[in-house]
Amino acid sequence: MQSGLSWYVYTLKRLLLMKKTTLLINCPDQKGLIATVTNFILEKEGNTIYVEQHVDHALKEFFMRLECEFDSDEKKLARFKESFNTNVAAHHQMHWEMYDTDKKPKMAIFVSKYEHCLYDILGRYASGELHVKIPIIISNHADLKPIADAFNVPFKHIPVTKGNKVEAEREQISVLEEHKIDFIVLARYMQILSSDFVDRYPNKIINIHHSFLPAFPGAKPYHSAYERGVKIIGATSHYVTSDLDEGPIIEQEIVRVSHIHNVQDFILKGRDLEKIVLSRAIKHHIQHKVLVYNNKTVIFS
Amino acid sequence: MQSGLSWYVYTLKRLLLMKKTTLLINCPDQKGLIATVTNFILEKEGNTIYVEQHVDHALKEFFMRLECEFDSDEKKLARFKESFNTNVAAHHQMHWEMYDTDKKPKMAIFVSKYEHCLYDILGRYASGELHVKIPIIISNHADLKPIADAFNVPFKHIPVTKGNKVEAEREQISVLEEHKIDFIVLARYMQILSSDFVDRYPNKIINIHHSFLPAFPGAKPYHSAYERGVKIIGATSHYVTSDLDEGPIIEQEIVRVSHIHNVQDFILKGRDLEKIVLSRAIKHHIQHKVLVYNNKTVIFS
Amino acid sequence: MQSGLSWYVYTLKRLLLMKKTTLLINCPDQKGLIATVTNFILEKEGNTIYVEQHVDHALKEFFMRLECEFDSDEKKLARFKESFNTNVAAHHQMHWEMYDTDKKPKMAIFVSKYEHCLYDILGRYASGELHVKIPIIISNHADLKPIADAFNVPFKHIPVTKGNKVEAEREQISVLEEHKIDFIVLARYMQILSSDFVDRYPNKIINIHHSFLPAFPGAKPYHSAYERGVKIIGATSHYVTSDLDEGPIIEQEIVRVSHIHNVQDFILKGRDLEKIVLSRAIKHHIQHKVLVYNNKTVIFS
Amino acid sequence: MQSGLSWYVYTLKRLLLMKKTTLLINCPDQKGLIATVTNFILEKEGNTIYVEQHVDHALKEFFMRLECEFDSDEKKLARFKESFNTNVAAHHQMHWEMYDTDKKPKMAIFVSKYEHCLYDILGRYASGELHVKIPIIISNHADLKPIADAFNVPFKHIPVTKGNKVEAEREQISVLEEHKIDFIVLARYMQILSSDFVDRYPNKIINIHHSFLPAFPGAKPYHSAYERGVKIIGATSHYVTSDLDEGPIIEQEIVRVSHIHNVQDFILKGRDLEKIVLSRAIKHHIQHKVLVYNNKTVIFS
C-alpha cells in the first residue's frame, strides 16, 4: 500500500507545482493511438489524468481529449510540444492543439440591443462560473453600455452603417488584437460579419439563434411559429463560418409550448432558451471540449 | 352528510345507466359562457363532470371542453342537442360538437412499406390502450399484409400509380364509406392525397413526419441532419390539409443525439419518435381533446 | 358577431374596474356543483373566467377552483360572500375560501444561518416574480441580516435558546401579528416550532427539507446518502403540522447524481433543489392553487 | 494517408478475427496508470479501443474500464492475463477482471407471482436487446410458468416454505451450478435469500424494489405513499448483500404523481418504473459497466 504521507505530498505537488494541460487530437483511426500518446506523455514526465475518445467509423477518424499534468516549467513544456509534434503527431497525421488548463482564455462579447444574453453571461462571469477573462464588449449601439458598466467590463461602441462596414470591422479587429482576444461570443449581435472577418477566427466565433420545427425563415420567426401553432420552440448555438448560420452546431435545446402561450410567451421562452444554450456552448468551448471536424462538432463529456 | 348508500346508488347509476358525452365548443369570448352552458346541461337533467376552458385573447375566442353525464336515452339526448343548438349555441355564435364518450370511433390506417408505426398502433390497439375500432388498413403496397393478419385486422391493397391516382382514391373512399370510418391515420403512408380527398375529411386525417432544427427539405433528411451534426431530431404529427405538411400541429417531440450516433442511429431514434408522437396524437383525437381553430390546435389536458 | 369596439370596452372594464377573485371549494361530491356555483356567480353580476375541478373518488369529495370577475365594489362583494354562504355553501356542506386575486398576501420568512433559500426568495421577490409583500424576516441568528438589508427587507433577530423558547415564540407571534402576516415560509429555519405556534397557522407555514430514497434519518443526511452511493437526491416542501415533517406535501423534486459527484457536490445540488422546490411551493400557495384535505394537497394547474 | 484498402483489411480483421475484451480495474491512485495499462496492452499485440476512468479523491482510489481488441486466440489471451497479473496488476495493488466482450453471460431469473418484470425482461431478451443467455427461471410458485413457456425459457418450480428454506436454497444452487449461471436477477422474488446463498454470488445478484421519499417501511408502501400524498414515487435496483436492501445501488429512477392519481395508478406507475430501472441495471451489468467498491458502484457510461 502507498503510504498516506506520500499520497499527500503527491497531491500537493499536483495542485501547486504541476502544469495542467488539455490536449485535443484528431487523426486517421489506427491501432495503438491511446497507448502511444499516453505513453509518450508518461515518458516526458507527464501524467494523463483523464482520457476520452471517439471514432467516427464512417470517416475513419479518431478523436481524443486528454487532461494531463506535467512536472514542468514553461520551457520544458515547450520542448514537450516540439518533441510531440516531431515524434508522435507527424507519424500519425495528427491535427492537435494543447491548452494550458489553468489559463483563462480571453473572450470578447459582441452585442447590439437585446440584453438578455449579455446579462446572463456577465452574471455567470461575475459569480465565477465561467473560467474566462472578458477584456471587452463591442457593440454597434450604445444602448447596453450601462450593463457593461455595472459589471465593470470595458465597452466599445463601434457604429456599423451600410457605408462603413469595412472600416467598422477593421476597428473591431484592431480592438480584438489589442486585447489579445482568443474567441468571440455573438450575444445576439444583429450584424452579419464579413467572410474576411470570420476567416480570421475559425471555430472561434460562437453565435446563438432561435430554431424551430419547422423552420420559419422570415423576419419575425416567433410570430410565424405562434401563427403555425408549434408545440416546441428551440435555440441553436454554433461556430460562425462564412456560410451564414450553417457553421458547426455546438448545442441545441428546446422547450415545449402550447395553446395557452401567446406570442409574447414564445419570445420570453425563446430568450430563456437562448441564454441557456449560449452559456452551455461557451462552457464547452472554454473547457476545450469541442473538436470541429468536417463542419461538425465532437463534444467531449 | 350524504349517506353512503345513496352515494353508491348514484355511482352505480352513473356507471350503468348514464350517457357520457364530450362537448367541444368555441365561440367569441363573452361573459357567462361557463355558467350558461353548465346550467343549461343541469336543467336538461345532465351533469357536468369536468370542464376545461381556454381564451385566445388575441383572437377574442373562447374554447371549452365539457365531460357530461345524462340521465337519458338516445331520444332524449337528440332533443337535448336540438334544444342546445336553438337556445344556447345560436345566441353565442357557437361552433360545437358533441360526442358519445363510450362509443369507439372508427379509425382507418393508411400504410405503405414502413412498418414501425403500424406495429406500434396495432400493439396498443391489441392491448386495449386505444379506445377505437380499426375496421380496415389500406395500403398502396401488399408488404405489410402479414402484420395486419397477425393482429386480425382486415387489409385492403389498393395500388397507386402515376396513372390511376384518381381511381385509387375513389376506391379508397368507397372502402372508407363502406366501413363508416370516422378518421384516418397516415402511418407513414408515402403517397400525397389529393385536395379532393383531404377536403372530405377536414381535421380527420392525422399524419406523422420527422422534423428537424434546421429543416432539411431534401430526399434523405436523416442523412442531411447527420451531415449537419444536429444535436436534436424531432417528429411532428398534424392534421392533413390541402396545404402539404402545413396542417394544424397536434403533437411534437424531440430526442437528443450526439457525435456518437451514426446516421442509422438517427433513423432508429427518429422511428421511435414517430411512433410516440403519432400515438399521442391519435389518443388526443380519440378523446376529443383537440379543437382546431385558425389552422392551430387547442389541446385540452 | 360582437363588434370590435364593444369588446374593447368589455376588456377595459375587466382590467380596470372589475374585482378579480379566486374561489376554492371542497364538499361531498354530488350532481350539478359546477353549474350551481358558476350560475350563482353569474346571477350576482360575476363572471367565471376559469374553472378547474377534481373528484377524489375514494373519499367521494369534490374540489373546485374558480377565477371570477365581479362588476362590484368591496361592499357588494361582501354581500355576495354572505349570500353565497347562505344559499350555496350551506346546502352542499361546502368548505370554501375566497381571495382577492389582486391583493398581495403578506409573507414572513424565518431563517437561521443557511442563506441559499433566502437569497433565492428575495431575488425572485425583487424581480417581481412573486406576487407577495414581505414585511419581515425573522431569525434566531443575526448572520443573515446583511442580506435582508441589501434587499431592503426588515429583519428581526429573535434569539432562541433552550430556556427561552416560549418567550421567543411569543415575541415571534407578536411581530407576525403586528405585520398582519398571512403565511410563513421557513427558509431553512433550524428550530422546531411548538404545536401551539403551528396550530395558529394551519396550512399557512411552508417548510423545505431534503429527502432521499432511501431516507437517511441521522444528523448528516447528505454524507449518509453519499456513503450509500445513491443515484438520486431530492427535496420536499410541505405545510407544517404539529407532526414534525409529516404535514401535507406541496411539491417534491429530485436531481440525478453519480459516482463522479463528491459529498460537497451532493450538498450543492441539494441546495439548488431546495431553492427550486421551495419557490414552486410558495408560488402555488400565493396563487391559491393549493387545497388541503385529509393531510394531502390538491394542486390546481 | 492510410490507404482505403489497408483500412478495410484492418476493419475486417477487427470484426472477424480479433478477440474483444473488457477490462475493469481499480487500485490506489498513482501516476501513469493509463499509460502503463494501455502500453502493456499494445506491447502484447492488443489495441485499446475505448478507455474511461474515474478517481475517487476521498478514497484515493483509481477506477478504469477498457475495451480492447487482441489479435489472439484463447491460448495467447490466457498468457496475456498471466503476464498482466504478474507485471502490471501486482505492482499497483490492482483488483481487476477481464471479460470476453462477445461471450453472452448466463443469467438466471428468480420470480414469485408478480409478472411485470419477468415479461419486460423476456420481451427484451426475445427482441435481442439483452446480450445474455437465460438458461433457467426459478420460482417458489408455479404461477408464471406459462410466461416462461411462451418465451421458450426453462422454468424450475422450487417451493419455499418456512421449514424447507435450507433445502430449497440447496436445490436452487444446484440448478444454478448445473447451468453455469454467471449472475442472478431477482425479478420481484418475494423470498429473502440467506447470507450463505448471497455470499456465493458477491455483486452477482441484482434486485429491484420500490423506493419513496420519505420511505414507507410497512407492508403496503404504495398505499402509505398515496395516503401521504407524495408527489414522486421511485424504484431502486441494487446488488444483494447479506444486509437486506442495503447493497450497492446500481440504478434509481422516479416518476411524478399528483392528486389525480389513485392508489392503483401509483401501483401501475411503480411497476412501470420497476421494469425500467431493473432492465437498466441488467444492461449495465451485462456490459461490464459496473464496478463495486466500498459498497458503492462506479457506473461507466
From TrEMBL, chains A, B, C, D:
<dbReference type="GO" id="GO:0006189">
    <property type="term" value="P:'de novo' IMP biosynthetic process"/>
</dbReference>
<comment type="similarity">
    <text>Belongs to the PurU family.</text>
</comment>
<keyword id="KW-0554">One-carbon metabolism</keyword>
<dbReference type="GO" id="GO:0008864">
    <property type="term" value="F:formyltetrahydrofolate deformylase activity"/>
</dbReference>
<dbReference type="Pfam" id="PF00551">
    <property type="entry name" value="Formyl_trans_N"/>
</dbReference>
<keyword id="KW-0378">Hydrolase</keyword>
<keyword id="KW-0658">Purine biosynthesis</keyword>
<feature type="active site">
    <location>
        <position position="245"/>
    </location>
</feature>
<dbReference type="InterPro" id="IPR036477">
    <property type="entry name" value="Formyl_transf_N_sf"/>
</dbReference>
<protein>
    <recommendedName>
        <fullName>Formyltetrahydrofolate deformylase</fullName>
        <ecNumber>3.5.1.10</ecNumber>
    </recommendedName>
</protein>
<dbReference type="InterPro" id="IPR002376">
    <property type="entry name" value="Formyl_transf_N"/>
</dbReference>
<dbReference type="InterPro" id="IPR044074">
    <property type="entry name" value="PurU_ACT"/>
</dbReference>
<dbReference type="GO" id="GO:0006730">
    <property type="term" value="P:one-carbon metabolic process"/>
</dbReference>
<dbReference type="InterPro" id="IPR041729">
    <property type="entry name" value="Formyl-FH4-Hydrolase_C"/>
</dbReference>
<dbReference type="InterPro" id="IPR045865">
    <property type="entry name" value="ACT-like_dom_sf"/>
</dbReference>
<comment type="pathway">
    <text>Purine metabolism; IMP biosynthesis via de novo pathway; formate from 10-formyl-5,6,7,8-tetrahydrofolate: step 1/1.</text>
</comment>
<dbReference type="InterPro" id="IPR004810">
    <property type="entry name" value="PurU"/>
</dbReference>
<feature type="domain" description="Formyl transferase N-terminal">
    <location>
        <begin position="106"/>
        <end position="282"/>
    </location>
</feature>
<comment type="function">
    <text>Catalyzes the hydrolysis of 10-formyltetrahydrofolate (formyl-FH4) to formate and tetrahydrofolate (FH4).</text>
</comment>
